[in-house]
Amino acid sequence: MEKELGKISIAEFGNYDIFFGLRLHFALGNGGGCSYIEEGLFNPNYRHYNDGEKAKAALAVIDFTRNLLKDAKAEYVSELVGKPVEVHFKNNACVGFRILTEVL
Q: Would you kindly state where each structural domain of the chain is located, as residue ranges?
C-alpha cells in the first residue's frame, strides 16, 4: 500500500449524487488530489433494504464521522478542512486515510 501526506481540502456532509453521508477531498503533497467517500453511504430512496440495513448504514456514517471529528480535535465537519492526513492508495486508488493526530 502506498501512502502520501496531504491535507483535507473539502469536507462535506449531506447529499452527494444519490448518496447521503460524508465526502472528503485531499490536497496531496505531490500536487495531486483525490476524493474519499465513506463506504457507509446509502441511497435513502432505495426501497430494497432488508430490515434494519438502512438504519445500520446511516449509523455507520454517523459513527465514522464522530470518530473522525474526535481524532481531528474538531467539533464540526467544516473544521476538518486543513487537517493533516496520511492518504492510503492501492493501485493508484484512494482506499483510506488517517488523521495525523501526532501533529495536531
A: 2-103
